[in-house]
Fold:
Amino acid sequence: MFQKVLIANRGEIALRVINACRELGVRTVAVYSEADRNSLHVRFADEAICIGPARASDSYLNVPAVISAAEIANVDAIHPGYGLLSENANFAEVCRASNIKFIGPPPEVTRMMGEKEKARQVMKKANVPILPGSDGVIATEEEAQEWAKKVGFPVILKAKAGGGGRGMRIVRTAEELPNMYHAANTEAANAFGNGELYMEKFIERPRHIEFQVLADEHGNVATLFERECSIQRRHQKLIEEAPSLMVTPKIRAHIDGTLKRCLTDIGYQNAGTVEFLMDEDGQIYFIEMNTRIQVEHPVTEFITGVDLVKAQLRIASGERLDAILPKKLEIRGHSIECRINAEHPQKFTPSAGKITAFNVPGGNGIRVDTAQYAEGVVPPYYDSLIAKLIVHGVDRAEAIARMERALSQFVVQGIETSIPLHQAIFADQGFREGKFDTKFMESFLADKHE
Structure:
């Protein structure tokens, strides 16, 4: 096991990694921007190094500054968390060149899976079901029209290097394709420095389902079941749960087998999440892979009993999966996570500022991952996520009841949060009955505004 690990992140995920390291007897080094000087990840790490001004581009995304901190602190490894540098293959390569272990997959694999169309072809070769679409990048507007005729409207244009909903356009007719093509191309170029697009068949009302995977450095791969992430707004997830109500044992076994073959073939290592869409007929299709730990990993930890961050550290230090995982993985009960964001619950505008009161709920089956505290300040420079509220119950009904109780006892004053929005969602009959898809929030918010 490593002697010392640097966490190249901030907020709740930085604190989460610090906790895992501490339980493994590993010393930690936090890096922080000037805006995060009083953050809890700085307080609870064994060492802390300031790497720049408030803006992420000048601090947390500044690769030379992060590597310099790692070399000054003489660390063995870097854990990137999620977001920021976690899926940056160039950063992983710099870590390798600096003889610092990157806790994640090899840079070649990260780069391959980060190029969405390449990832599609890898999965297709392994017989993982993928959506009908173009065979590669679409070079021109005319080529886009040809593919749209083959695939059949509606289609969706996606950025090859994309994520977070940017560089995406739904196209329903041939007439609107030229404008949509140029808009997606421009947005992708501005967001990712790469305007290349590919095309897929668009599913009108899909469910968003993802499978958690772990792979060691000896060629062994395990899947730790699925999560349902259909409750989202503008492609940003709000609520996640495990297991999914829609995934049958047959689907689960099929995806497990195909992912094990595929990820073994490409040499995948460490944690990752493979994302799918499910259509109204229950057919499931690969869309992309995230080569990192996910925000919503705690729901998988609740239903499996596996600490995924400790597993990441143990895998990166050379341990085999059979020494890390239980002999038999089983789904135990039901877990749900709410992402508590610092934003107005109706306008969705960010709400930075000083927290004047902060009380987190507790009790059986409740977990709160946060780096916030009373009198702490939520800076305006970063993602609005301030806490993750996760519950576990013997079944979905108990998990929902537990979440409603926990939300009512979660007190945050001084800033606006999404807690009232979550409470309204959990009161919705359709949500309670499991009757939802990725369009749920559109109709839910429309009903609220009538």
Remarks:
- The mean pLDDT is 95.
- The two ends are 57 Å apart (CA to CA).
- The chain has three domains: 4-103, 132-201, 207-449.
- Residues 249-266 form the longest helix (18 residues).
